[in-house]
Write a structure and sequence with these properties.
With 128 residues, this protein is α+β, with helices and mostly antiparallel strands. It has four helices and five strands; from the N terminus they run αββαβαββα. It has helices at 2-11, 42-50, 60-66, 107-122; strands at residues 15-21, 32-35, 54-57, 75-81, 88-94. It has a five-stranded mixed sheet with strand order 2-1-5-4-3, with helices on one face. β4 (75-81) and β5 (88-94) form a beta hairpin.
Length: 128
């Protein structure tokens, strides 16, 4: 919840989600969802296969998978949590259609998920 509030404020977005692969533990709150690697929507499968930051429009399928309760969201930034040992993704979404664009600077989006992954590991996420 603290991560969600901080990122919402720092990035000026309406919604933030941590999407962790099934089997990884995290606090059960509105900022966290579980992903099943075997049942990922095609868009997310491609995202994880490529391993790159995505900034742009959010499709209806992706919005349903990550932000089911927020149909008003128009753009999203998605970043993998630790590209070497991927835990899931961090997604920031906005009601502004051009808030996240493919041509925008991504420096903070490159740094933030690595810090989040380190914090999650420190607090026990990913341990069985």
């Amino acid at each position: 919840a603290s991560l969600r509030n901080t990122l919402q404020t720092d990035f000026s977005v309406e919604e933030v989600k941590l999407a962790l692969f099934s089997g990884l533990s995290a606090a059960d709150d509105a900022a966290h969802i579980s992903l099943d690697k075997a049942k990922l929507p095609k868009e997310l499968s491609n995202f994880f296969r490529q391993g790159h930051i995505y900034c742009g429009e959010i499709s209806a399928e992706l919005r349903a998978a990550l932000f089911a309760e927020h149909t008003e969201l128009k753009s999203v930034a998605m970043v993998p949590l630790d590209r070497h040992d991927c835990m899931g993704l961090l997604a920031l979404a906005s009601t502004e259609p051009t808030r996240f664009r493919p041509d925008m600077g991504k420096l903070f989006l490159e740094i933030t998920p690595n810090l989040c992954a380190a914090a999650l590991r420190f607090h026990g996420a990913g341990k069985s």
